[in-house]
Write a structure and sequence with these properties.
Layout: H1 14-17, H2 25-34, H3 46-66, H4 68-157, H5 166-185, H6 189-196, H7 200-203, E1 209-212, H8 218-225, E2 230-234, H9 237-245, E3 250-252, H10 255-260, E4 267-273, H11 283-294, E5 295-306, H12 311-314, H13 330-339, E6 345-352, H14 372-389, E7 392-400
Parallel strand pairs: 1-2, 1-4, 2-3, 4-5
Antiparallel strand pairs: 5-7, 6-7
Helix pairs in contact: 2-4, 6-8
């Protein structure tokens, strides 16, 4: 077999005697191992050439006998030289194969890396496009708002209409500032939509759902996609405008006044996400009683609010929103639900802090055996403190009208 796995040809003395001797080391090894003699050939044609060839054949045995020792040494030297050259050739071939494998793996990794980079590149451009779309919408809203204010100011200046209401202008600016704050700290619309989806099992098949303080309409959109009949109410004209742009049903108005006009026993569900912490304490029981009146038997009321049970929320994150009045304790809210007539009532803890914000835990396996009991006790204390600091960020109170 040769290096490629194909059967080797049988060597012949003709491979050495021609004008271009073979370069195959295996052929040369055969020549010197077998000690194959070269044929005696004359240098010219005719009788003189044949006579010279005959004399060479007669003289060859005598010359070989006289030079036998030198011939054997030269033969052994040639064989050792061939053996060394053959080993080096095999080593070079093996190294070439190894290098070829390395190059193939490098090519595969390069292609994989380029493909991964392209995927990340596509995701990055997609995220940039989303942000640009959002900025375009916000810029468009601001431009329209500015145009309306300028038109109102021009109308007032030429006496063709009423003067610009400074309270209405201030409210518009406040709404825009609050919208920016909510987008920055509460989460994107997609984040909020994923969170409110947890309440779908409580509302499915119960009838029309009203969202008190519907905001940007994330809950309305999620519930509508699931086939629920939904509508919302919010005191912010900007929020209502955004809901209507999405094709959602929403009205601007005061939550209490709106709820008091709803037909008694007409709703299958009422939800309110992150609203009660904006209300004074006496207003919450009143809102609960109005909700109880508007719900049909079996109707569900859901209030979600930041949890004061996690100190990182109640002492830090809660106060990012300057319109928050005070955290609402779940024990008090549960009692208020029951006093308003809801039964059963249960709490749903939601949205835990990310793992990288929790207190670190000691790895017991990395410690000597005599230190593990103390470390285990420290871990138990850590669990209590960590739960106190970084429990769930929000909770939902779910009550059913009997």
């Amino acid at each position: 077999m040769d290096g490629s796995g194909a059967p080797r040809r049988q060597p012949s003395i003709e491979h050495f005697a021609g004008p271009e001797p073979t370069r195959d080391l295996a052929d040369w090894a055969w020549l010197w191992t077998e000690d194959v003699p070269f044929p005696v050939r004359s240098g010219s044609a005719g009788l003189r050439g044949r006579l010279a060839a005959g004399l060479k054949r007669l003289a060859r045995p005598f010359l070989r006998a006289a030079l036998g020792d030198l011939w054997d040494r030269q033969r052994v030297f040639n064989l050792i030289l061939l053996e060394t050259a053959t080993k080096q050739q095999e080593e070079y071939r093996d190294r070439l194969q190894v290098q070829q494998q390395h190059l193939e793996r490098l090519d595969a990794r390069t292609i994989q890396g380029l493909q991964e980079a392209m995927r990340h590149n596509d995701a990055l451009f997609s995220r940039v496009d989303q942000k640009l779309d959002r900025y375009r919408r916000e810029a468009k809203d601001l431009w329209h708002r500015l145009g309306a204010l300028v038109a109102a100011a021009e109308t007032a200046s030429d006496g063709a209409g009423p003067a610009l209401d400074p309270k209405a202008a201030a409210k518009g600016l406040e709404e825009q500032a609050y919208l920016s704050l909510e987008q920055r700290y509460r989460g994107s619309e997609d984040d909020i939509a994923q969170r409110v989806a947890a309440y779908l099992p409580h509302l499915a098949g119960g009838g029309e759902v009203l969202d008190l303080g519907c905001g940007r309409g994330e809950a309305l959109e999620v519930f509508a996609k699931e086939g629920l009949t939904v509508r919302g109410v919010d005191s912010s004209a900007e929020m209502v405008h955004r809901c209507r742009e999405k094709g959602l049903t929403a009205d601007e108005g005061d939550l209490f006044e709106y709820l008091s006009t709803v037909e008694e026993g007409s709703l299958g569900g009422i939800v309110s996400f992150h609203v009660v912490e904006h209300l004074p304490a006496p207003a919450v029981p009143r809102l609960l009683r109005l909700a109880w009146r508007a719900l049909r038997p079996g109707g569900v009321l859901i209030f979600e609010t930041p949890s004061p049970l996690a100190l990182a929320m109640s002492a830090r994150d809660f106060w990012m929103d300057p319109t928050h009045l005070r955290p609402v304790h779940p024990a008090w809210l549960e009692v208020a639900f029951r006093e308003a007539g809801f039964e059963p009532v249960h709490r749903v803890d939601l949205h835990p802090f990310p793992e990288d914000e929790h207190l670190p835990e000691i790895d017991l396996e990395s410690l000597p055996a005599d230190q593990r009991p103390l470390a285990d006790h420290v871990n138990r204390v850590r669990d209590v403190v960590d739960d106190l600091l970084f429990g769930d960020r929000d909770f939902g109170m779910v009550g059913t009208k009997p």
